[in-house]
């Protein structure tokens, strides 16, 4: 079973990487299948990340890489945030923190969670967040509402960003709004560095 899932994820990665327009096709397929099955969108990938069938590092890396590659290929913010919001509603942030707090977490998995987090922070308007090399630098801004000038200045942000703004603006040290040293070796989740994890 795991070999079939692993091979499927590899093939989907090849499909998404082949041409950018394939990411939109994959999202359309996911929407069709999950809606027909009465599931939350991207719940199959989230089940892999939540390890409901046991630990398999390669599966985790492939699943998170597929998420990042699909998001990176999207040229517009609307489909980007639609997908991110589905993942956030299913607890991808907590899942990432759980993986990264473990001893001996695979460095490829660490990198993929880091890419997801830094890209999301960049899209949400955190100018200090360094966009990973694989992140899309020229995503077209989403239209938030009407055509008047005031609406034109506004921008869409993630569900996580909106929820944080609705709180009392106090943030824990592990929250994405906290100030971090922004280097490639620094982890936004839990304030850990890649070096710390690999030395455990």
UniProtKB/TrEMBL annotation:
Compositionally biased intervals (Low complexity): 171-188
Keywords (A to Z) from UniProt: Actin-binding, Signal
Keyword Protein transport assigned: no
Family matches, as Pfam families: FH3_FHOD1-3 (PF24959)
Stretches with biased composition (Basic residues): 153-162
Residues of the GBD/FH3 domain: 1-200
Signal peptide, first to last residue: 1-23
PROSITE patterns in the record: GBD_FH3 (PS51232)
Keyword Signal: yes
InterPro entries attached to this UniProt entry: ARM-like, ARM-type_fold, FH3_FHOD1-3-like, GBD/FH3_dom
Residue ranges, annotated region (Disordered): 124-200
PANTHER family hit by this protein: FH1_FH2 DOMAIN-CONTAINING PROTEIN 3, FORMIN HOMOLOGY 2 DOMAIN CONTAINING, ISOFORM I
The protein's name: FH1/FH2 domain-containing protein 3
């Amino acid at each position: 079973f795991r070999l079939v899932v692993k091979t499927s994820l590899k093939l989907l990665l090849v499909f998404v990487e082949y041409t950018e327009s394939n990411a939109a096709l994959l999202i359309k397929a996911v929407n069709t299948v999950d809606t027909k099955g009465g599931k939350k969108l991207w719940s199959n990938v989230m089940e892999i990340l939540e390890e409901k069938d046991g630990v398999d590092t390669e599966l985790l890396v492939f699943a998170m890489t597929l998420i990042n590659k699909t998001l990176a290929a999207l040229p517009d913010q609307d489909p980007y945030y639609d997908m991110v919001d589905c993942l956030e509603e299913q607890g991808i942030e907590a899942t990432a923190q759980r993986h990264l707090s473990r001893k001996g977490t695979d460095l490829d998995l660490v990198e993929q969670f880091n890419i997801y987090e830094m890209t999301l922070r960049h899209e949400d308007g955190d100018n200090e967040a360094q966009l990973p090399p694989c992140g899309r630098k020229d995503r077209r801004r989403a239209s938030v509402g009407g055509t008047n000038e005031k609406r034109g200045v506004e921008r869409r942000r993630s569900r996580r960003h909106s929820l944080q703004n609705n709180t009392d603006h106090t943030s824990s040290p592990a929250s994405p709004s906290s100030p971090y040293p922004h280097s490639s070796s620094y982890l936004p989740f839990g304030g850990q560095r890649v070096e710390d994890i690999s030395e455990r």
